[in-house]
Amino acid sequence: MWQWLRTLFFPVRCIRCGLYDCGAICRNCLTQLPRFVPPLCSSCGTSKEFHYSVHCIAGSRQLNRVICVSPYAGNVRAAIQKLKYRRPGNLGETLGEFMVEYARSLGDVELPDVVVPVPLHPQRERKRGYNQAVILGAAVAAGLGAQLDTSALSRKRDTFPQWRLSRRQRGANVRGAFACGPSFSGAHVLLVDDIITTSATVNECASVLRRAGAKRVDAFALARDLVLDSEHIDRREQRHV
Ligand SMILES: [Zn+2]
Ligand SMILES: [Zn+2]
Question: What residues have their beta carbon closer than 5 A to ion ligand 2?
Answer without folding.
Answer: 41, 43-44, 55-56
